Amino acid sequence: MNKLTEIFKSIDVNNDGKLSIEEISKYIKKVMGSCNSDEINEICDKIDMNKSGYIDYSEFLSATINKKKLLRKKELKQAFQHIDRDGSGDISKRELRKAFQTKGTK
């Protein structure tokens, strides 16, 4: 099983072959400690190409592999640099936590 399949299956807790917004939110909270539901809804809406209300495996792969759908490379680099306050090239838990607090999410 490849890494993307493993990630998809770990998010799909009810094993129905599709990801609900609730499953995605729970996964992000588990991994990152917090999430902004408005941002998650917006991202899921962009990924959900057939507007079914769920993210199926092909949509998940498309969004994961084709990151241009969500953020262009330049925007991603700017966001990374903004969060990486010490310029180390790595984002620490502290820097990530600070970025979410600044955004209004704790």
UniProtKB/TrEMBL annotation:
Keywords: Calcium, Metal-binding, Repeat. SMART domains: EFh. It comes from the Eukaryota. CDD domains: EFh. Residues 1-34, 35-70, 71-106 form the EF-hand domain. One of its GO terms (molecular function) is calcium ion binding. This is EF-hand domain-containing protein. It comes from Euplotes harpa. The lineage of its organism: Eukaryota, Sar, Alveolata, Ciliophora, Intramacronucleata.
